[in-house]
Amino acid sequence: MSIKNKQASVKLIIFVLMICTFSIGYTEYAVMGILTSIADDFNIHVSSAGLLVTAYAASVCLTGPLVTIISVKLPRKPVLLGLMGIFVLSNLISVLAPNFAVLAISRILSASIHGAFFAIAMVFASEMVPPEKRSAAAASMNGGLTVALMLGVPFGSYLGDIMNWRVVFGIITILGAVGFIGLMLTVPNRKPKVIPMLMNEWGVFKQKQVLYSFAITILGYSGVFIAYTFIEPMLRNSAGFGTVGITGALFAYGLGGVAGNFFAGKVPLHLLTRTMIGVMIGLIGVLSVFPYMAVYPAAAILATFLFGACAFGTPPLLQTKVISSSNSGTTIAAAVSVSAFNLANALGAWIGGIILSGTGSYHWLFAGGALVTALGLVLSTFAHFSEKKSMYQYEINKS
């Protein structure tokens, strides 16, 4: 195969992986835009429908590292095909779910492949290109998540309103099937070049900054999902948004997420913790004023954009901090980092459901989110001072 043909083949494979990551990212976030539709269809409270978010995130948290470890030594192609096959089947079950319990089970099944697929696909994409192009390959593949957030969620919310929430899962099923066929036709069948020695990597949990990062992730990001899980019904209730308004607001959130993610990706390594503190302060501020801005449609769109920017400005900082703080054990650290984010998602959705059931007010969701995020801010401050102390001691020992 010529170099030009090989490059075209690699680009095609990465594009197929983008389709897969888009569909997986879409199914994770789509529920937030169709909670009201699901709740109305099954005649349950919207707080109960929010348990779908908790179930999905908890499943990713528990199964991601486990499935990754089990499959890490196997050839990439059959593993990716198997995971994508489960994904398609689970979303088909969601389309046909006769009751809420079956829908919840299908969400758990869909989430069981999430962490492993992303981990294996990321490594596979990096193995196909020269070292200097690995970041670009990974960024291209992860572009599926960004597109899912910015376009997929608002579009899904619109379809759920004018048609039915099952249509959204039907589209996800079709996208997953396209991804499955693409994997079958384009991905070569080969074993991984480097097999991580996972048993040698558990020492990462002895590193203080890594533990700080996990704790900050769980607390700080739980605050985001206390509010975001119920943002669609909240905007209907406060801003009086209909189908078009909700679609615009969710698009604004996704656009803000893209902006925040882009900003965080440019932060120098030595400013990670300090920038994270600043972003969390901004997030607390947005959560605190959101209910008061949300009563005015134009202000609600602006607040939603700022919410997305602050919410998605934190994950790249935290993930980079985990990897950079891991002198050894980066594989297991990265896997646990993904689980920590999804644990935060599950906790946030669960706490938000309790707050909504107990108070009956969407305003308290944002107050609760701000309070939990403030705990993450306190931990970030401790991490910052601990980091400075370690650097000071290092300089003294060096001199």
TrEMBL record:
It comes from Bacillus atrophaeus (strain 1942). Its main location: membrane. Keywords: Cell membrane, Membrane, Transmembrane, Transmembrane helix, Transport. InterPro entries: MFS, MFS_dom, MFS_Efflux_Transporters, MFS_trans_sf. It comes from the Bacteria. The keyword Transferase does not apply. Coiled coil: none annotated. This is Efflux transporter. It is a multi-pass membrane protein.
